[in-house]
Amino acid sequence: MSGVIDLVLCTRTSESSTIRPVDLKTEGAGRMSEGGSNELLAALGSEKTGPACEAEEGTLRQHRMQLALYYRALSSIEHARQEAGLPHREVLRPAILIGVTGRMVEYPEDMLKESLDELDELLASTARMALSSDIPISHFARLSGEAASACEKCPFHRGSLPICGPAEQ
């Protein structure tokens, strides 16, 4: 997980005030400039707020931890404002702005909940590893299948002497 949030959309009506984390993704734009195709174009013209094709769903899944973290941070800030008696905003589900189509694709509720649960588990494991140096690494299950792609970005797997990695290694 890397990068920073690209945009926070705040809206205000007479009834409510909202905030939404939005991240711009330009994946596949280079292929198009070289004459290649892009599966994200299948959603061009769709008026759905959620993913309109498999490529959009894949983009949402690929960046789920990043957007879940942004959502969690904004939710925490707005909750603290509410608890302090300050004006606060409703935090809307995060979205990705797909650069090649210009579509803003909102995370479906079930995908956001799944991502937040996964984020909680990841943060809890990270905290246990950081605070308990005597816990053997074998207590933390190796990832397999599609989830193992996260290993390529993990500091425990990088470097000349990785201490962890995908289950298939």
Write the topology of this structure:
Blueprint: E1 7-12, E2 17-25, H1 29-33, H2 54-62, H3 64-83, E3 90-91, E4 95-98, E5 103-106, H4 109-131
Parallel strand pairs: 2-3, 2-4
Antiparallel strand pairs: 1-2, 4-5
Q: Approximately how much helix is present in the residues? A: 25-40%
Order of helices and strands: EEHHHEEEH
Distance N terminus to C terminus?
A: 22 Å
**What is the molecular shape?**
flat
Biggest beta sheet summary: 5 strands, mixed
The number of distinct structural domains comes to 1
Please count the beta strands (DSSP E, at least 2 residues each): 5
| Cα Rg | 19 Å
Structural class: alpha/beta
As residue ranges, the low-confidence spans are none
Fraction in beta strands: 5-15%
Subunit organisation of the chains: single chain
Report the average pLDDT across residues: 84
* Secondary structure tally, helices: 4
